[in-house]
Write a structure and sequence with these properties.
Blueprint: H1 2-14, H2 16-36, E1 41-42, H3 51-62, H4 64-67, E2 70-76, H5 86-100, E3 105-108, H6 111-114, E4 123-130, H7 139-147, H8 150-154, E5 158-162, H9 175-192, H10 195-219, E6 225-226, H11 227-256, H12 263-290, H13 298-329, H14 350-361, H15 363-378, E7 386-387, H16 399-411, E8 419-424, H17 430-446, E9 450-458, E10 464-471, H18 478-490, H19 492-498, E11 501-505, H20 507-541, H21 545-570, E12 586-587, H22 590-620, H23 623-650, H24 658-690, H25 699-704, H26 724-731
Parallel strand pairs: 1-6, 7-12
Antiparallel strand pairs: 2-4, 2-5, 3-4, 8-10, 8-11, 9-10
Helix pairs in contact: 1-2, 1-12, 1-13, 2-10, 2-13, 9-10, 9-11, 9-23, 10-11, 10-13, 11-12, 11-13, 11-23, 12-13, 12-22, 14-23, 14-24, 15-21, 15-24, 17-19, 20-21, 20-22, 21-22, 21-24, 22-23, 22-24, 23-24
């Protein structure tokens, strides 16, 4: 591998103009396609096969009026007044007339006629039903709906919006994300010691992210894609794009510290050595993200493939565009020799060497302290609960959160967990249908956790009937989950006997179904990741104990990260700092996503750190010195890479969307834990304890494992500035 990448790096340096032109052209094409032919992104997390989705599909086909998007307009009278007052009634009626004129609205209920007013007459709501599903309602209609609320607000009423149509779009590029990129630039400048060198990884990462994300937006024209998929592609693409370029630029400048090092040879050698680690790590990330498809959930598969595509682009840019730009910058990237007051040259990586020696001198105390700390962080993970975010988790100042609070105050906490019971009477005799629906309603009313059964609505022919069920408990309560399972058994019995089919659906039921589906897929996904890690690292390091150690460290990172997520998001700790709307179950697909993404990123650091250790051991056969050398040479770069990733991911913590917020937090914490506690602390301590045995491989296995040459042993001798022309002629024909 290293020999081929050496030739590729030298070719890119010599053909730098063409390489840059190709990437500029690709970016321009992506911009054109992504901005003019982009598809529609959805906010719905659909999972074929689950009961709630089957019910939704049935309603779309047979009873579209019940499957359309709904905007719930919530009214609250001023203190001391009621909605039944004459002035208030006029204001509500005027508002509802305006709402009825919103394009796409086919029906608007009136609280005065439907009785959807609280007992104290202070809070009420009306539902505006659209002809199309919520994700198909255009933004122009949503804006018109917001303006339609003016009559009631002008009259002094509080008016907020809930329902499926009011879900806010996911937006990125705010101040927090920009601050994250600025922090990344500062870290690059400190790590590389050059503003010019620091700018290069940012430029190449932005080219990669622009190409990848805009291509994903274009592909959304042909594939159903959630808005979270593009944000994940942006997060991952930006983080790994900066890190991969950093690895190569750092190795290049490290080599150029030798005044005799030839520039073109250094570019090719950096591409061969650091580029091998980048290639191996990038493939690992892509395979881990693609493995999300093992969950069998389409939206998660698309998210993983979209992010994997941006990682592929980041790897290609690191291996071609970065060497080309390094050639353009030329000697300006050669570090200037700096001296201490005593006239001695300052040694790069001095703090890394000191840290590595600390790990090798006290491996047992370091290992015990690290593992105990990680296990303590992981304790909250035992109470992990999964779900989909409701309006309660939206920012406290948002209209969605306020409408949720008003409805809970006026109608009880279970009102926001309203379920939909769909009865398919197509195979039931006509004379039996009405009686059957009444029987189902009676079963629902008898349940101990049902507060109200909303009167049924049916198609004209009576084939499909829909009943609403309001629980006594909220959407995230365990009692509500238990009730959903109970109703699916009890309500289905009379319908099954009559030859029909009953479904329990709605947003709350969908969240329960998706969580159950993902929970069932989690063990298989973890098994795939563990086996993948063992095989990849066995191939990279030709060692048996190093992969085992890496997998155990990764599992510790995952457990600690999930524990932190549960502590903050599920238990509501530090909610003010992270601007949480409310404590709620963890987003159902976050654990699978975290495992896939963090596995890939963890292997980045594992490959980069351990490859330098193995390189030293291969040449000097001193296990302890190899550990110290590996931390010395890679500690600074891995520290910078982890801080950059944390800065990029951390910028998304303050996004208003609760899903993006939790993903950003989980990845930020996961990267920091894995890089600083596991890869730079636990790994050196364990390898120091294992000594020479860490690099052992049984002979029969050694013959079976291919040698990919991550360390660059097969590279030609280093070319000096004097002998560069001869060396160049020797390698000119390696890449055509």
């Amino acid at each position: 591998m290293a020999k081929r990448l050496y030739a590729l790096g030298r070719w890119a340096a010599r053909r730098r103009g063409r390489v840059v032109a190709v990437w500029v052209l690709l970016l321009a094409v992506a911009v054109g396609l992504g901005t003019t032919l982009s598809g529609k992104l959805t906010t719905e997390f659909t999972v074929p096969g689950i009961e709630s989705q089957q019910a939704q599909d049935l309603l779309k086909k047979e009873f579209p009026q019940a499957a359309g998007g709904t905007a719930r307009v919530v009214f609250a009278a001023p203190d001391g007044k009621r909605l039944t007052g004459r002035t208030e009634q006029r204001a509500v009626s005027a508002t509802l007339r305006e709402v009825a004129e919103v394009p796409g609205v086919i029906d608007v209920t009136d609280p005065a006629k439907t009785g959807t007013v609280s007992k104290d007459r202070a809070i009420g709501y009306a539902d505006a039903v659209f002809a199309t599903p919520a994700d198909s309602v255009p933004q122009s209609a949503k804006d018109r709906l917001e303006r339609a609320l003016a009559p009631a607000r002008d009259a002094g009423l509080t008016v907020e919006l809930g329902g499926t149509v009011s879900t806010p779009p996911v937006e990125v590029g705010g101040p927090a994300e920009i601050v994250g990129v600025v922090v990344a630039f500062v870290v690059l400048a400190v790590a590389l010691g050059s503003l010019l060198a620091a700018g290069l990884p940012l430029v190449t990462a932005l080219v990669g992210v622009g190409t990848g994300v805009l291509t994903v937006q274009f592909l959304s024209r042909f594939v159903e894609m959630t808005n979270t998929a593009t944000v994940l592609a942006l997060m991952i693409g930006l983080a790994v794009g900066i890190d991969y370029a950093l690895f190569i630029v750092s190795r290049h400048r490290e080599q150029l510290a030798d005044p005799e090092q030839d520039l073109e040879d250094s570019i090719a050698r950096a591409t061969a050595t650091a580029g091998s680690a980048v290639t191996f790590a990038g493939v690992t990330v892509m395979v881990a993200l693609a493995a999300l498809s093992a969950a069998g959930i389409p939206f998660l598969t698309v998210m993983g493939l979209a992010a994997a595509g941006t990682v592929l682009i980041a790897v290609l840019i690191a291996l071609t565009l970065v060497p080309a730009l390094l050639a353009f910058l030329g000697e300006r990237l050669r570090p200037k020799t700096r001296a201490t007051g005593a006239g001695r040259e300052r040694r790069a990586g001095a703090w890394g060497l000191a840290w590595g020696r600390l790990m090798t001198r006290f491996p047992i105390p370091v290992l015990v302290a690290s593992v105990v700390g990680l296990l303590a962080l992981a304790v909250p993970a035992k109470d992990l609960r999964l779900g989909l975010p409701s309006n309660e988790t939206q920012p406290a100042a948002s209209t969605q959160h306020k409408s949720y609070d008003l409805l809970a105050k006026g109608f009880g906490p279970g009102f926001n967990a309203t379920l939909t019971v769909v009865v398919d009477n197509a195979k039931v005799p006509r004379e039996r249908r009405e009686t059957l629906v009444k029987e189902v309603g009676g079963v629902l009313e008898k349940d101990r956790n049902v507060a109200t059964v909303i009167p049924p609505r049916a198609t004209k022919d009576g084939r499909i009937t829909v009943l609403g069920v309001v629980p006594k408990t909220g959407p995230d309560d365990r009692a509500t989950t238990d009730m959903v399972h109970r109703l699916r058994d009890e309500a289905a019995r009379p319908v099954d006997r009559a030859g029909g089919t009953a479904y329990v659906a709605g947003q709350t039921a969908a969240g329960i179904d998706v969580s159950a589906k993902l929970s069932a897929a989690l063990p298989l996904f973890i098994a795939i990741i563990v086996v993948l890690a063992l095989l990849l690292l066995l191939t990279a390091f030709r060692s048996l104990l190093v992969p085992l150690k890496a997998v155990l460290g990764f599992l510790l990172s995952i457990a600690a990260s999930l524990g932190a997520v549960v502590w903050v998001f599920q238990e509501g700790r530090l909610s003010g700092l992270f601007q949480l709307g409310a404590a709620a179950p963890v987003v159902s697909f976050l654990p699978v996503l975290l495992i896939g993404v963090l596995f890939g990123l963890a292997m980045d650091y594992e490959v980069f750190v351990v490859s330098r250790m193995r390189e030293h051991f291969h040449h000097h056969r001193d296990a302890r010195a190899a550990v110290e050398h590996g931390v010395e040479r890679s500690g600074r770069v891995v520290t910078a890479a982890a801080l950059i990733m944390a800065a990029v991911f951390g910028g998304f913590i303050f996004n208003h969307d609760p899903i993006i917020k939790s993903i950003g937090f989980a990845l930020t914490v996961g990267v920091l834990i894995d890089a600083f506690v596991v890869r730079l602390t636990v790994v050196p301590a364990v390898l120091a304890l294992l000594g020479r045995y860490a690099w052992a491989l049984p002979r029969w296995l050694e013959r079976a494992v291919p040698n990919v040459d991550v360390e660059g042993d097969a590279l030609p001798p280093r070319a000096s500035r004097v002998t560069a022309p001869a060396a160049a002629s020797d390698t000119r024909g390696e890449v055509s």
